[in-house]
């Protein structure tokens, strides 16, 4: 907590989540400073899964896996939306070769990630999971689930996932190559 800021003659106390002002003998919240974007909060989510207008079968599978395991972890079933069918959602998890990922300049190359590698990047309210190829996109979805919910698949009938009703959207970027070399800047915040 930090004190000392003055607003209209009143002292402000700042914390990491809000600003408080002293009014009539008590501290009153005056502004929310939390810039975290919640994937899920209180068992609800504002996110949708975004697919290309004409997704490949593997992109559709990756989106289904994301939807399934997100629900396993949070209890929330995210809607899946294809580009061009309606207005883009305010917050989305883009899977595969979407126009939105191109507009956000998410363009993994074979030289950068290899044929099965991927890029995960958060930009503003959205997160992009995109491989150089379809297998890379699928691998990216599983890695994103691992980063967010400690997802591990040991066998078809032996899967570990951490359940939560609160999760913050990871910020930053992760690049994963075929050689399992990570360049991580993805900041996953535990709630």
Written account of the structure:
The chain has 191 residues and is α+β, with helices and mostly antiparallel strands. The protein has four helices and 15 strands. The chain has helices at residues 57-74, 99-103, 110-113, 134-149; strands at residues 2-7, 10-14, 18-23, 26-32, 38-40, 47-51, 80-82, 91-95, 118-123, 126-131, 152-155, 158-160, 167-168, 173-176, 182-184. The chain has a seven-stranded mixed β-sheet with strand order 7-6-8-10-9-14-15. Strands 1-2-3-4 form a four-stranded antiparallel β-sheet, with no helix packed on it. Helix 1 runs parallel beside helix 4. The longest helix is centred in the middle third of the chain and has 18 residues, at 57-74. Mean pLDDT is 81; it is low at 1-21, 29-33 and 181-187.
